[in-house]
Amino acid sequence: MMTQTERRIYLIKKLLKEQGKYYEIEIPADEQEQKNLLRSLFNVRMPRPLEKHFLQIQDAYLREETKKKGITELVDLTPIQEGIYLWQGDITTLRCDAIVNAANSELLGCFIPCHSCIDNAIHTYAGVQLRHACFEIIKRQGHKESTGGAKITPAFNLPCKYVLHTVGPIVKGHLTDKDTQQLISCYRSCLALAEKNGLQSIAFCCISTGEFHFPNDKAAEIAVQTVKDYIMEKSSKIEVIFNVFKDIDHKLYESLLR
Questions:
Q1: How far apart are the C-alpha atoms of 170 and 208, rounded to whole Å?
Q2: What is the side-by-side strand order in the sheet with 84-88?
Q3: Which of 15, 59, 92, 116 is the most exposed place for a label (fewest CB within 10 A)?
């Protein structure tokens, strides 16, 4: 059985060889630098199939890395309201039916090596299969994903079962009514898609904040109100986790939910 170091070196060598132009890169001795290099190679890789043996090694490696970070079970969380949870942590370590990814319109994930966005993290720890699955969705529909819509894929190596990909509005200057309506659509589309697929729990990230510049306070208000409206209108029993990473977002959601 291979160690994590052996798996990591194997994956790096295979990806360097596949990339061609990076083949001469020397593999660093430092463990963290190796991890950064592997993540970078995952991030820049274009969507295409890989051999079964590579995927087996990659899957074992990623699942062990996630296990080391610590998996959070939905059943261990305490609801802040009936059927609604607030949890601060790494969404790639959460075990529930589905997590929501704040995607770009191509659904291909973030190509910037080791970028800190949620899109990068989800694609990294799900494995290369996720980018390929998203590529196939776009290929079939023949156009980029519309803002406010949602698509579903398996979660591959993440603890959750599925990933829901939604494209939030990019705010340029002043917040507009169109921005607001598109963000509402993101939440409603994800909830509807989750229920259509028989899912009982969904974890939302802070869609469109950060890189897409939607004001955090307004985004939180929209998220909470839209979810509550949907649950009431549909008499839905779906459990919703509002996942936050930053302290500022935790304070905003806690204030709204308490």
A1: 7
A2: 84-88, 239-244, 201-204, 98-102, 162-166, 150-154
A3: 116
